[in-house]
Amino acid sequence: MTGVSIGRAPAWRRGFSAYGAIVSGLGAVLLCALAVTGDRLPLADWRFWLMGALVLVGELMPIDVPRRDGADRVAISTAFAFAVLLEFGLLPAVLAYGVASAIADVHARLSPVKVTFNAAQYGLSLAASALVLAAIGHEPPIDSIAAALPAVLISAGVFFVVNHVLAGVGAALIIGESPARYLLSDLPFQVLTAGFVLAISPVVVASAEASMALVPLALLPVLALWIGARRAALDTHRAFHDSLTDLPNRLLLHQRLDRTLVRARAERTPLTLLLVDLDDFKAVNDTLGHAYGDRLLGDVAARMRAALGGDDLLARLGGDEFAVLPAGACDAERGHEVATRLVSALEEPFEVDGILLDVRASVGLACFPEHGTAADELLRGADVALYVAKAAQNPVEVYSAGKDHYTVDRLMLAAQLRRGLEMGELVLEYQPKFPMRGGPAVGVEALARWEHPTLGRIGPDGFIPLAEQTGLISRVTDVVLRTAIAQVASWAAQGLELRMSVNVSPRNLLDPQLPGLIRTLLAEAGVAPSRLQLEITESRSVPSGRVAMAVLEELRTMGVGLAIDDFGTGFSSLVQLQRLPVDEIKIDRSFVSAMIDSESDATIVRSTIDLARNLGLIVTAEGVEDERTRRRLADMGCDLAQGYELCRPLPADRCAHVLREVPFVLAPVAPLSKVNS
Q1: How far apart are CA 505 and CA 13, in angstroms?
Q2: What's the number of domains the chain is made of?
């Protein structure tokens, strides 16, 4: 049988300490009473020393049985300790079992309270079985095991029950589980393991009656079991743990989460699950290779483990994604504190073979019972929160139903979008770009619309995020590029030479096939690459890895123009300008529309224009809705303007009519200072 050797929740350890002290005290009283009134010690009997040695071997070589969070341990020492009781009496059995247990526990570096507790519970269990044996009329030592077998089996059953209760209550106190629930759930396992080991005792005694030379042979089948069990435990450990970091894997996390949820429901305590994902980790693998990436993951896991409590569960789910299940009651506030501690722990650079690597992480949280009552619900909620954290560039996000775009309706809409792409429901409208100081339009921006058969027209904000989340963005981009490039060729045949701007998702830049697709489409349509411009939305993070930069460089080499859309609203605008090969920036309408009434917005616009001109970039202002704004922008040196008052997005034929048939030419504007004078 096993003693107490596990530990988890600190709040319950104080309860076990008191319980362990009581059991240890009773064990000490028993030992003192036996020393005064008990049987003499057969120190001169070599058979006693042989039996004692077998008890010690059984304690030092427990059988690892795959179970729960990896493996449980069953000590075969019980069979020989109970045989000592039957052969030599209670005091020799208590001393042999207690000394062997203490030696094994000290070797395993258990705490003193657990060492004394385990020795005491074994002694008390032996004492209970001896009392029952004596009450039935068979005082140890037993002369004939065959004649006393029924009494021996009853006595063994008492030993099993007492030991199971004493050890089970202690284990339940340590892990914070109801003792009654723990004892009932653990009983079948103990019957099939410790109970069967205990049943070997009569065989050992019977062998001793025939010849003590037969007793050591009882170790041979046990040794075979031990070797097989060790191998099975190793295989089980591999099945439940990550091979790179040796952390629990997704399967073990799910099992632990299920069990923790049962306890949380019973005790009505909160629980929080955290998912941690490293930002842009793919760049490490792409740049330095997977060997560096694996070593970095090992260092990251070690640092996160050090930042957590000893009882918190840290698991690796795969790739660069980890999960954390804090021990004990954990609400959203405490979960946020744990997440912040993890993020802070990764801020210090990692050194791998002399190379300093910066690692940043995003964390998503989901709480029981607010965000889910089952393991799958919490995993999904934390995953959604993690996605929101990455999209918003926030280190930590708690799940919010308002930000959950993965509802059943969204999944249905995704299926309809797939069908809509096949049925040609995606159409384009075009909005002209006019020179700020007068003249005809020099280009148009293609804007995608989804003509849904029942929901009507859906703008890009309604389906582009959905396409990104469901992996349809590449197909959407393919349709938009084909339609837009074909339209450029059609207009050119009609005498309208325009530059077509097409918005692309940052995720498209991770597709190394994108330049080849564009090259083919331009060649098939007979359109010069300079007639196409791709707009990258600056309000969303642009990938910084080797693949994205290679895609952008190849497009620029082809002659395709690149522009940053929504400039000033997103992530590190100056950094984007520094590393992206762009030739145009578009100032977001939020600054342009407010610049007349807000001097701070006007300053931002002026500074952006000055910066772009110094870098040799074209500047387009979005949201130009009135003459005064246009004049002020012209006075600042802005090049191009877009706005609903100038021309709304229109279908291709109507846009061509506006550009060709209607004399829609902006009049030259004088500097704003002269207009105001």
Answers
A1: 53
A2: 3
Question: Which residue has 């065959």 as its token pair?
Answer: 146
Burial 77-88 (b: 16+ CB within 10 A, else e): bbbbbbbbbbbb
Examine the domain organization and report whether 345 and 448 are in the same domain: no
In a domain, 64, yes or no: yes
DSSP 135-167: HHT-PSSPS-TTTTHHHHHHHHHHHHHHHHHHH
Phi–psi pair at 74, nearest 5 degrees:
-120, 120
Whole-number Cα distances in Å, 335 to 306, 325, 382, 527: 17, 9, 12, 55
Does the predicted TM-score (pTM) go above 0.70?
A: no
User: Is 11 in contact with 176 (CB distance < 8 Å)?
Assistant: yes
Alpha helices per DSSP H over 308-406: 332-345, 375-392
Residue 296's CATH number? 3.30.70.270
**219 and 307 belong to one structural domain:** no
What tens digit of pLDDT does each residue of 531-553 get? 999 998 754 555 555 777 888 88
Please name every residue paired with 621 in a beta bridge, in sequence order, or none if there are none: 587, 641
Residues 49, 118 within the same domain:
yes
Q: How many helices (H) and strands (E) does the chain have?
A: 26, 18
Domain end marker among 187, 207, 240: 240
Can you give the residue range of the structural domain that contains 173? 10-240
